[in-house]
Amino acid sequence: MYMNKFERIILILFGLIVTTLSVVTMTQATPEANSYTYLPLVVKSEPQAMTEFRGLWVSRYDWTYYNQPASPAKLDEIVQNAALAGFNVIFFQVRGTADAYYTPGLEPWAQRVSGGTLGQAPNPLWDPLAYLIQAAHAEGIQVHAYLNVYPVWDCGALPDPNVTPTPFYYLLKDAHGVTPDGTAEGKPNGLQWLITGDVLCDVYRRATPASVFGDEHYIAVAKDLVTRYDIDGIHLDNIRYGASNASYDPVSTANYDTNYTYAEWQRRQVNGTVRKFYEQVVPLKQGLWLSAAVWPVYQKKPEWGWTEYYQQGYSTYYQDSKAWIADGYIDSISPMIYPGGIVNCPDDNDYWTQERWGILVADYQADSNGRYIIPGIGADYCSFDEIEARINIARQIGTAGHAIFSYRGLLASGYFDDLANGPYATPAVVPDITWHP
Q: What global pTM score does this model have?
């Protein structure tokens, strides 16, 4: 076999190292004691990495506060703990209510970044997303920009219309107009309305999925993120209707296609938004992931015997997440199978028992169509055993990995060492997306 000069030098050096480590020593205490002792060659081997998506949700509430400036030191802490534990992906929230947790952009600075006012830059000026990307990539951790899609604003006082850039609430209002309701503001036609005619506001005021103007705005925001930042993925959340009796807004009723039932038509509106992300944003960067956090129950099945749980992604929120993977316009979905915002103690009060968690994961995995199922695990268990058990269930079912919600819960319980010394003791690399062109 031909070897070039460099290869021959390397071979010679290797031989010298082996010879040195295997040096023969001769003891000379007595002539009879002369013997040869061979020192063994010791090679330390690192554990071979497995392939597994290990995601950590970092919501805006995990690192910002309502009335104090956000700190780069907090992001350093998050990355250090994530690396220590063995995570390889961070879902980092960059958009909550049509605001920006990064340098604008098309939407104003989030109030929680400056700790002061919507649209106010932090002082001293810094960019949280750029900062996190640099720190995470240095540790070999991917960063997926996590966006709330349809939320326009919360249910409190409206944003200041004079903020720059103009808040999306007012852009949507200008695009679709308002319906008079006796108030100075009126009812914006581009928001989701309940069948009663009231504007839906559960946690958020939400844009109607029937708004093409809205879709164009979300896509523009995502394109801006992909072209300005070295992100590894876009992660969608709140990509659904807010209630089963929404949306009966004027934009929806004017565009309803009577070839479908209203529920079918609503699902098509959400599906269309997801497809636009996949077709218009993903091609902008080689290897970019498109993922989404989805409702934990897609459709309840009679054989499960779950009589007390009625909310389903497909029929309650018109979120047809299995269609996204069946038709190939998303890379992974993460069913959110954990209590929402509730400290889960004691563990035996959890509705999402290990058995039910496994049933739902298996249901999604059975229809994965070659795409990735990354089930969500809650962080707020009293016992780390509950988290580890779900990780093992996901591995047994054969998912591509899992994600934990969220950083703040893991920090409160001190579970980073438990992950590092337990289910994450073997390092892992993120699965490849083999179907992208």
A: 0.89
- For residue 302, give the amino acid letter: P
- Specify burial of residue 240 (Cβ count, 10 A radius: 0-12, 13-18, 19+): buried
Predicted confidence at residue 45, as pLDDT, reads 53
Q: What is the pLDDT of residue 46?
A: 60
Q: 10-residue block means of pLDDT along the chain (437 residues)? A: 40 40 38 40 64 98 94 98 98 98 98 94 97 98 98 96 98 97 92 97 97 98 98 98 96 98 98 98 98 98 87 97 98 93 74 94 98 97 96 98 97 97 98 94
CA angle 406, 154, 194 (to 5 degrees): 110
Burial 250-279 (b: 16+ CB within 10 A, else e): bbbeeeeeeeeeeeebbbbbbbebbbbbbe
**What is d(CA 428, CA 407) in angstroms, rounded to the nearest whole number?**
19
Residue 184's pLDDT is what?
83
Q: Is residue 437 part of a domain?
A: no
Quick one: 15 and 72 in the same domain? no
Sign of CA dihedral 213, 219, 221, 227: negative
Instruction: Work out the burial of residue 409: count CB atoms within 10 Å of its CB; fewer than 13 is exposed, 13-18 middle, 19 or more buried.
Output: buried
What is the token pair recorded at 404? 């934990």
Domain that holds residue 28: 1-44
| 302 and 169 within one domain | yes
**Which residue, chain included where needed, has tokens 């490849």?**
432
Contact between residue 406 and residue 379 where contact means Cβ atoms under 8 Å apart: yes
What would the two tokens of residue 16 be?
A: 């010298």
* 393: Cα separation from own chain's centroid: 20
Do 2 and 140 sit in the same domain of this protein?
Answer: no
Boundary of a domain, candidates 11, 27, 44: 44
CATH number at residue 285: 3.20.20.80
Nearest CA to 292 out of 437, 148, 128, 102 is that of 148
